[in-house]
Amino acid sequence: MSPIVEAAALSLPRAMAAAAAEMDEALDALLPAVEGPEGRLYEAMRYATIGGGKRLRGFLALEGARQFGVSRNAALRVAAAIEMVHAYSLVHDDLPAMDDDDLRRGKPTVHRAFDEATAILAGDALQCHAFTVLAEEDTHRDPAVRAELVRGLSRAAGPRGMCGGQMLDMLAEYADEPLSESQVGRLQTLKTGKLIEFAAESGAILGKAPPQLRHALCLYGRELGAAFQIADDLLDATASADEAGKRTGKDAAAGKATLVGLLGPERARLQAERLVAQAKAHLDGFTERVDHLRMLADFTIQRRS
Asked: Which of 22, 30, 79, 278 is deepest in the core (most CB within 10 A)?
């Protein structure tokens, strides 16, 4: 690898690490430790969100906002809100009634570190607080922009997004026949893809971007989200728990519907590579500021955690 190429390849991990640190600072300010009876709830919320994780969704929001000169403070608030919703989904996903996981991001899951009831409340509170953050004037002075952000995130997280996908995932475990490739694709689009798609589009909403550029980021996020889920399923099938920071091999054990299980690892990997190429093609109308987004697409299927 040439020094120029190597430097470019290293720039994405550095950029993601720096952005993750900024998001942690924003989350620390938006979720302050408090005294009193509700202090344990805030502690659990902070435990679920601050520190750890790739911050991929928040990074997408920041990079999208960077294309349109959005203030860093506004972009960080949106990124933090998205990460709160993502964290809430993980807290609930790990509960005994869902996937019953003990490890998340290399540490005990919230219901293990605290208790099951506190984990449920922490997830509920994180979801609610995310929309409070988006609705506040500090996020954007234009109420129409704030309303669009609230609507977009609620759609991505709701019955036709993440929650709907989780329901399909649960039902698939008890289906009489295995899901088809298109059915698995729809499940994964809802469960994982919609939030990633909104994260990519959110910076364009903040920046009041031209429709064609906003649509391009939306499509980029859609393809990226699909590739990300395939890569996640490949990790579950091939990575160790230490590498992934969570229990692996659980999809096959639970009989979950995945493209890896349906197509096999090699065909699934090829599908992910095609999706990454399509995602990057949607960025052709932007300037050199999209270098990180292009590299992020490749990172999505090369990661080991």
From this structure: 79
